[in-house]
Design brief:
heterodimer, A: 115 residues, mainly beta, 7-stranded mixed sheet, 4-stranded antiparallel sheet, 11 strands, 52% strand, B: 110 residues, 6-stranded mixed sheet, 5-stranded antiparallel sheet, 55% strand
């Protein structure tokens, strides 16, 4: 158990819909990262927040957005869903702000299926 | 196209055998990490390497970072069924861009 929690564990929805994935970081961790893992693309970094502010952006689509709240939990919002958005979405957290050399602790993931 | 190429994509070996998996890029990494992921779980960090030529050992696992910081390898000695999993390398570019390889899926048969 990494100490990072993600809800829901599974999510099934239809194309065109909008969903929200939730992540609670480890106690004391200020950074939250979101990743997408699909069979054909592997694990892709989406976005990072540190203490409520966006710190780094990866391959995140404009249809996706995220935020980190004052209590440090984070939400990833996916809208206008397409079949290709079906994937595992992971949240990770770390103590420090930078990506360089910091150990990230990954949650168990949310499996999104878009039908 | 993956910025990080991992090979082999799949590897199935018998318990007790040795193996090496590779992570290669045409770009220079600021640092590189190796993770292991089991089905239904998130990746777990194994090691971070930062200096070109660096070698780190973790029990039966030996990690090497290339001198030019463009490639890395993971060598497992006397593999055990518990080593089964997806091994991912992740390279950090320009301190702000982290890219993962597609992974090597290792199966160790008893």
């Amino acid at each position: 158990d990494s100490g990072v929690t993600q809800t829901p564990k599974h999510l099934i929805t239809a194309t065109g819909q909008r969903v929200t994935l939730r992540c609670s970081p480890r106690s004391g961790d200020l950074s939250v990262y979101w990743y997408q893992q699909s069979l054909d693309q592997g694990l892709q970094f989406l976005i990072q927040y540190y203490n409520g502010e966006e710190r780094a952006k990866g391959n995140i689509l404009e249809r996706f957005s995220a935020q980190q709240f004052p209590d440090l939990h984070s939400e990833l919002n996916l809208s206008s869903l397409e079949l290709g958005d079906s994937a595992l979405y992971f949240c990770a957290s770390s103590v420090a702000t930078g990506l360089a050399g910091n150990e990230q602790f990954f949650g168990p993931g949310t499996r999104l299926t878009v039908l | 196209t993956q910025l990080l190429e991992q090979s082999p994509q799949f590897l199935s070996i018998q318990e007790g055998e040795n193996l090496t998996v590779y992570c290669n890029s045409s770009s220079v990494f600021s640092s590189l990490q190796w993770y292991r992921q089991e089905p239904g779980e998130g990746p777990v960090l194994l090691v971070t390497v930062v200096t070109g030529g660096e070698v780190k050992k973790l029990k039966r696992l030996t990690f090497q970072f290339g001198d030019a910081r463009k490639d890395s390898s993971l060598h497992i000695t006397a593999a055990q069924p518990g080593d089964t999993g997806l091994y991912l390398c992740a390279g950090l570019y320009n301190n702000n861009d982290m890219r993962f390889g597609a992974g090597t899926r290792l199966t160790v048969k008893p």
